[in-house]
Amino acid sequence: MKILTIETTCDETAAAVVTDELQVLSSVVASQDKLHERFGGVVPEIASRAHVERILPVIDETLRKANLKLADLDAVAVANTPGLAGSLLVGLTAAKTIAVACDLPLVAINHLQAHIYACRLASGRNVFPCVGLVVSGGHSNIYRCAGPTDFTPLGGTIDDAAGEAFDKVASLLGLPYPGGPSIEKAARSGDATKYRFPRPLLDDPTRLDFSFSGLKTAVRYLIAGPGKVGASTGEQKARSVEDIAASFQEAVIDCLVGKAELALKRTGYNLLCVGGGVAANGRFRARLEASAAEHGYELHVPPLSLCTDNAVMGAIAIERLKAGQIEDLSLEISPGPERGGAASGGV
Ligand code: KG4
Ligand code: ZN
After folding, report:
1. Which residue among 37, 136, 250 is best mutated to probe the pocket of ligand 1, counting the most ligand atoms within 8 A of its Cβ?
2. Helix or strand or coil: residue 204?
3. Whose CA is nearest to atom 7 of ligand 1?
4. Which atom of ligand 1 lies at the shortest distance from residue 161's CA?
5. Which ligand is located closest to the Cα atom of residue 182?
6. Distance 100 CA to ligand 2 centre (A)
7. Residue nearest to atom 23 of ligand 1 (CA)
8. CA 38/CA 45 separation, integer angstroms
9. For the chain, how far is it from start to end, CA to CA, in angstroms?
10. Can you give the pLDDT at residue 41?
């Protein structure tokens, strides 16, 4: 079977063709970074308009690269949750149109579950049951993943997501968008022990939640002083951007790694799958590897191209298709955000 997967949850317009054997026949990602750069963050209206312009060329290019026509497809799948409402609508409308025109089954993709499934694709073997940690621009969630169609949220951020904190702190430090890679680059030549930023909720063994908004404020206070809005050039220069970036990055990573370890302990699972844009961070990957070696669990983190948004990870749709989870045309978008654990009043 050949499945077309469509991804337009945020600011990447992406499509892929994958088979039921998890072979990737083609993949196209059109990034909008250049459009949002000057605003220091994704502007939802610009994102949805750009998706409208790009979705058909991206799908055409995906089929052309796989040497296929629409008539060769066996199913179409689309990420309908979570994400920006206007962006999600573009992908969903394209998928529904193809489903109707070509009489294909329509499959829904949960974007966060797809980020975890990227580990299944990259490893080439079963990774379930596992603890799933998704760390992206909009989410920092932990899941009990009993199977590829059985995800239970265990916890998540109660305010900012980790990627969002990277983006906002980069902006405070005058580093270019997207903030994650900029902070990582600056941190390489910084001293991570220079400033002791808070590690919110890390010491609370009863919660699998994160809170990054206070950490972001701590950076702002360090730069500008409590209650002040901006830093003068003189004040800013007195502190090293590299040291702040490295110290901030370490604080975020401490929280992520600490809660992942707690989730493994709680579930009794011995396998951790990490996904989402922040999982592209080299220091985070190294710290996860050290943690896995120390505690003896199996770790899967996808290659960089499968960490940031793409449509290949939408191959999770195959699992739903096999389980008979097919949608009709009443399928809606569900923008979210998807909160887990205490934040949602859940598990
Ligand atoms: O998963 P993703 O591509 O899109 C969403 O679903 O949100 O994640 C984007 C987020 C952005 O906040 C970006 O700054 C962050 O991932 N990111 C990183 C790195 N690369 C991307 N954060 C830290 N270090 C990186 N190297
Ligand atoms: Zn994502």
Report:
1. 136
2. coil
3. 137
4. 12
5. 1
6. 27
7. 180
8. 15
9. 36
10. 85
Cβ burial of 234 (10 Å; 0-12, 13-18, 19+) is exposed
Q: Catalogue the E-assigned strands of 2-99.
A: 2-7, 12-19, 24-31, 75-81
The number of the ligand 1 atom at minimal distance from the alpha carbon of 166 is: 14
- HSE toward the beta carbon, residue 8, CA cutoff 13 A: 30
**How far is the C-alpha of 328 from the C-alpha of 322, rounded, in Å?**
16
Whether residue 119 contacts residue 302, with contact meaning beta carbons closer than 8 Å, is answered with yes
* 170 CA to centre of own chain: 18
pLDDT tens string 155-184: 999 999 999 999 999 999 999 989 999 999
Residue burial 165-185, b: 16+ Cβ < 10 Å; e: rest: bbbbbbbbbebebbbbbbbbe
Q: Which residues line ligand 1 (CB under 6 A)?
A: 10, 136-138, 163-164, 166-167, 178-181, 184, 276-278, 280-281, 308-309
E strands present in the chain:
2-7, 12-19, 24-31, 75-81, 106-110, 130-135, 140-147, 150-156, 271-275, 298-300
Taking the centre of ligand 1 as the mean of its atom positions, its distance from the CA of residue 282, in whole angstroms, is: 12
- Kind of pairing between the strands at 130-135 and 2-7: unpaired
Amino acid occupying residue 274: V
pTM, entire model: 0.94
Q: What is the pLDDT of residues 93-117, one digit of tens each?
A: 999 999 999 999 999 999 999 999 9
